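Researcher: We're teaching a course module on how sequence relates to structure. For the next exercise, students receive a sequence and then see the predicted structure as tokens, so they can try to spot secondary structure elements on their own. Here is the exercise chain.
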Amino acid sequence: MPCYECENGMWRFGETGSCQYDSKESCETANKDYYAKTYNDYPQSATNNAKRAIKYKEENGSSCGTQVGWTRARQLASRESLSRDTIARMASFKRHEQHADVPYDEGCGGLMYDCWGGKSGVNWAIKKLDQIDREKNKLDDRFKDYLNKYGC
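Model: And here is the predicted structure for the students to work with:
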């Protein structure tokens, strides 16, 4: 839910927020929790897979996939940083791996799998999600230890 410019030149947080910020920067600062840590260390091959899928659609047309899938392809193709939630959705695409090798012109499986980064992107997402969660658990454990130590 990023910041959007309003018709009056002000900025709002989210599509239905009120137009209360003077600049995009002030909107983002006020909603900094939304802009939490992001990651863009996915493999170049995931970017290449997404670019290949986009190119195919542009050159041949396609009714395959959803808006979310094509948005993911554009994010990966432009090497945008991804949130933990987005990485989790990428990891969950593993369930479609059996369709990864379907040629683009023979069905939607391979095309859409590549929109989500293909095998390299999905496998990166699985590993990255595990890494993010392990780091978070370490921090949570340290916080719990602190609370226990100081009786809070």
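Model: If you want an answer key for the exercise: Residues 1-35 form one domain. The longest strand covers residues 3-5.
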